[in-house]
Amino acid sequence: MDKFEYKGKRYIKIKQDWYSEIGEKQPLKLAVELDAEFSKSLLEKEESVKNLLDQSAHFLNTGIILKAYDFAQEALRMAILQKDMSALPTVVVKNVDILREMKRFGEGIEMILDLREKYPDLLVNPYVETALAALYCDLKQGEAALSSADLATEYFRASKKKLSDECLIVWNRIKSDFAPLYHAYRLAKTKGAGES
Questions:
Q1: d(Cα 70, Cα 73) in Å, to the nearest integer?
Q2: Is the model's pTM score more than 0.85?
Q3: Which domain holds residue 105?
Q4: Other residues' Cβ atoms within 10 Å of the Cβ of residue 153
Q5: Is residue 31 part of a domain?
Q6: How many domains, in total, are found in the chain?
Q7: Most CB within 10 Å of its CB: which of 18, 156, 166, 173?
Q8: For the stretch 170-181, what's the b/e string if a residue is b when 16 or more beta carbons lie within 10 angstroms of its beta carbon?
């Protein structure tokens, strides 16, 4: 069910039909008009999340970190407000990038864990999992980083996508920063693959 205001009146969309505020089904001509305006408003909202992310990236690239953070946070608020689950992972990753730049690693982890409770789709997103692994690397938490990197790899494979550059970077960090842990992991994986 969606609510939409058009020409000073409020309408409610239930499945494919439009109703007035008091529950009267709207005629086909008005319903077509409402559909068009409603779709247009959704595109504008979607565009504004993208615009905010673009602005955030611009400020990050020019070294104005706090401004980048403000825009990324606004994009996050807007994606949540609009329940835009397709944009949410990208917005979360952008916020993590900025928090990492600001050395606020714990805050990044907390943000991901909080959002995952509210939006379970984020639980199996390979890009969000990669961002989490990177944060764990930053905090020198090898086991957590390895676990998240492993999950991210599985999520990429499950969605039939190749590993992102970010995920490959995280694996390289784990390999160099936590060598004994990484070698034990590789050994266990090789042994597990040999037994199956």
A1: 5
A2: no
A3: 48-195
A4: 19
A5: no
A6: 1
A7: 18
A8: bbebbbeebeee
CA dist 99 and 39 (Å) reads 34
**Residue 124 counted as domain residue:** yes
Helix pair 88-101, 105-118: axis angle to 10 deg: 160
- Which amino acid is it at 48? S
The CATH number of the domain holding residue 119 is 1.25.40.10
Distance from chain centroid for Cα 40: 23
Considering the domain boundaries, does residue 101 fall inside one?
yes
Q: Is residue 12 part of a domain?
A: no
Position 116: which residue type? R
Residue 51 structure tokens: 């615009």
Question: Listing from the earlier edge strand, what are the strands of the sheet with 17-20?
Answer: 2-6, 9-14, 17-20
The angle subtended at Cα 152 by Cα 148 and Cα 157, nearest 5°, is 150
41 or 114: which leads in pLDDT: 114
CB atoms inside a 10 Å sphere around CB 76: 22
Q: How far apart are alpha carbons 112 and 64 in whole angstroms?
A: 23
